[in-house]
Amino acid sequence: MALRVAVVGATGNVGRELLNIMDERDFPADDVFAVASRRSVGREVSYGDKTLKCQALDDFDFSKVDVVLMSAGGTLSKEWAPKIGAQGAIVIDNSSAWRMDPDVPLVVPEVNGEDVLEYGKKNIIANPNCSTAQLVMALKPLHDAANIKRVVVSTYQSVSGSGKAGMDELWNQTKGIFVNDQPEPEEYPRQIAFNAIPMIGSFREDGFTDEEAKMWNETHKMIDPNIKLTVTCVRVPVFVSHSETVNIEFNNPITPEQAREALRNFDGVQVVDNPDEDQYITPVEAAGEWATYVSRVRVDPTVENGLALWVVSDNLRKGAALNTVQIAEELIKRGVLKPESVSA
User: Fold this and answer.
1) C-alpha dihedral over 100, 101, 105, 110, to 10 degrees?
2) Burial class, 293, CB count within 10 angstroms (exposed 0-12 / middle 13-18 / buried 19+)
3) Longest dimension (CA), the chain
4) What pLDDT is attached to residue 181?
5) CATH architecture for the domain at 131-158+196-313
6) Residue 87: phi, psi to the nearest 5?
7) Among this protein's residues, is 220 annotated catalytic?
8) Out of 46, 51, 198, 271, which residue is the most buried by the measure of CB atoms under 10 Å away?
C-alpha cells in the first residue's frame, strides 16, 4: 500500500501547487486528504484527475495519515504541527514557525537531504523561505568547490510570495492605472504595479527586515554558519518566480567556467548562460518549472576570488511546494516512510 497524505492549507496557492506536484511526480499516495479552515469545508480542489473536498482542520483525524504537507501560515503551524506530530504523522511545514528551532531540521534535499533523519524530536521538518531555497541551491555546489567567504544578495521577489492577496493587488492596481481608478495599497506598503518596494516583512532594529534575516539565518543553518551574508529584499511587479543577484567572495580561486561546471553537476540546477547567444533566464521562463536556474556567471573584479551571478526559480515550486514534496520523497529514499509497508 502507498502512503496516506494530508495537505493542510489545500485551498491556498502553495496548497494547490502541492497537489499538482504530487500528481506530476507520481508521489506514492493511496489516500490524499485536502484539509483547510472551517470556512473552506466542502470546497473542491483538483488532484490529478480527481476532485477532493476540503475537510476542516479542527475535526480531521491526523492519526490516519503518515505525512502532512502543511502550508497554512506560521500561527496555525505553531498550534497544530506539534499536535499532529504527537499523533505520529511527520509534518513538513512551509511556514517560518519552525525553521530556526534547533530540534527541527531545515531541509533542501539536494543541499542537506541527510538532515531529514533528525525529524524525530518533534516529528516536524521545516521548509526554508522561498528566496533562501533557490539561493542555497546555487551556493552549495560553489561552496563545496571553492569555500565561500562572503555573499551579497539582492532579491527581486514576485507577488505570489505573499499569497493570492498580493497577486490580486498587482492585477487590480495594474488595471486601475489604465482607467484612472487605481485602488489604494492594502497588501503592500506602497503601490506595487509598475514599482519596486525595497522592503519585505518588518523592519528590525538593525535596519534589515525579518525577510532578509531569514535568508542569512537559514543559509547558515543549512550550509555553513561561517559564511558572511548580507541581503536586500525587494518586491517587484512579477506574478511568479523570484530572482536574485548574487555576488560571492571565495576563500579559494574559482573561474566562471569552473563555477558553471560545478553548478551543472548539481542536481536541480540548470545553467543557462551564453551572452554571445543572448541566453539567460527571466522569471517568466522559470514559472512552472522545477529547476533553479543560474545565468550571467562572471568575475566580480572588486574582490579577490569573486564571482557574480543571477539566480531565478519558481517560488511556488522550488521555493515551497516542490521542495516540500521532495522532502517527503527524501524520507522515502532514506527508509523513514515506507509505502510498501503501510497498512490500509
Assistant:
1) 0
2) buried
3) 62
4) 84
5) 2-Layer Sandwich (3.30)
6) -90, 0
7) no
8) 271
Q: Contact, 173 vs 192, CB < 8 A?
A: yes
Output the tens digit of pLDDT for each of the chain's 344 residues: 689 999 999 998 899 999 999 999 999 999 999 999 888 888 999 999 999 999 999 999 999 999 999 999 899 999 999 999 999 999 999 999 999 999 999 999 999 999 999 999 999 999 999 999 999 999 999 999 999 999 999 999 999 999 899 999 999 999 999 998 888 899 999 999 999 999 999 999 999 999 999 999 999 999 999 999 999 999 999 999 999 999 999 999 999 999 999 999 999 999 999 999 999 999 999 999 999 999 999 999 999 999 999 999 999 999 999 999 999 999 999 999 988 744 43
DSSP-based three-state secondary structure for 44: strand
For 277-286, write each residue's pLDDT tens digit.
999 999 999 9
The Cα angle at residue 152 between residues 257 and 287, in degrees rounded to 5 = 70
d(CA 77, CA 91): 10
Q: Identify whether 130 is a catalytic site residue.
A: yes
Domain ranges of the chain: 3-127+320-341, 131-158+196-313
Q: Please choose, from the candidates 266, 7, 3, the residue with its C-alpha nearest in 3D space to the C-alpha of residue 137.
A: 266
- Contact criterion met (CB below 8 Å) for 18 and 93: no
Q: Pseudo-torsion of CA 215, 137, 13, 178, nearest 10°?
A: 80
Q: Which CATH number fits domain 3-127+320-341: 3.30.70.1660, 1.10.10.970, 3.90.1150.10, 3.40.50.720?
A: 3.40.50.720
Residue among 130, 143, 220, 233 flagged as catalytic: 130
For residue 341 the three cell numbers come to: 509497508
The pTM of the full predicted model, rounded to 2 decimals, is 0.93
CA nearest neighbour of 151 among 91, 209, 220 = 220
Residues listed for the chain: 344
pLDDT reported for residue 2: 83
